[in-house]
Structure formats: C-alpha cells, structure tokens
Amino acid sequence: MPATTDPRPLTGEPVSLDLLNTRWMHEDVRQDLLTGVDGLRVWLASAGLDGRFAADEPTLEHLLSAREALSGLVESPGEARAAARLNAVLDHGRIRATLTAEGPGERPEFEDPSWGAAWTAARDYLDLLRAAPDRIRSCAHKSCILYFYDTSRNGTRRWCSMAACGNRAKASRHYARTRDN
What we know:
Layout: H1 15-20, E1 23-26, E2 29-32, H2 37-46, H3 57-75, H4 80-90, E3 93-100, E4 103-110, H5 116-131, E5 136-138, E6 147-149, H6 162-180
Antiparallel strand pairs: 1-2, 3-4, 5-6
C-alpha cells in the first residue's frame, strides 16, 4: 500500500525529533500520526526509513516506546526514568564496524528487526546530544508542541516554522499593540 501525504505541519527534522513531531496541534486539537500501521507507513516514508523497516504492529509498538522515552527526555533532560526507557530501546540494536571497498563504515544490527526504527530514532537523539544539545528546541509558540534542531548560524531560532508559529506570534503582538491604541 503506498504511503499517503504526510499531514504534519513540520517534517524533515532529524529522525528523533521527527518522531516526536508525529504529535501536533491543529485548531487546538492534539493530532497523532501514529495511531495505526497506516500512519507508521507515512512516517517511515517521510523519515526516509521505508524499505529499511516494516510497517507492522510490532514496529509501531516499539516506535511508540521510543517516542515516549524521547518525549520525557526533551521535556526534562537527564530525567532518570526517561533515560532508562531510552536505554531500553537502545539495548535492541548495536553498531557493527565494517570495511568496504569505499573504506571504513558502520551498519546497525538488530536481533529483532521490529526494533530497528525505534533504535534508529533513539540513536539519532544521542547524535544530537553529542553535537549540540542546546540546539534541541521546542517551538516558542504557546500552543505548539513541535520540536526542531536549530541549525541557524547564531542559534536563535525560536519557532518550528516562521511561516506558521512565528507569523501567528507576530500577528498576536501586532493585534495587541493596535488594540491598546
């Protein structure tokens, strides 16, 4: 079955944050892409993981475990229970060093392939923490629950999208200024 269009307002973030962004707000109602295998199929395609991992119930279950662990960590960095949940996901995979005609490389290995997508997202989060943990951000708009990795030169990005949340915030400030005059 081909994947349908991804309905989320923000895509293309690193895979760990992209997994968190499978929950978003639309007209003050919380949406969730991962309510079934069809949504999983859409997410795998959007994240570039289709073809690598199956879109089935075990994969969905493991991915939801990873999402909950990641959610706990971005909301409360260093929180012990969330770290333990993420480590439990990471226990299901490992990196194997390889040497190919192109040179040294690495490839992930999983005892149970249904853990692959969850492990990939968890491992990506570790990579973000190694690179620049302070660049993992939540959108500054009060009703937005999306996350992004700030790749701006000076590290001052505040909004998941300037066109959406940034513009809404500017419009609100403008309305408040003109209303008071």
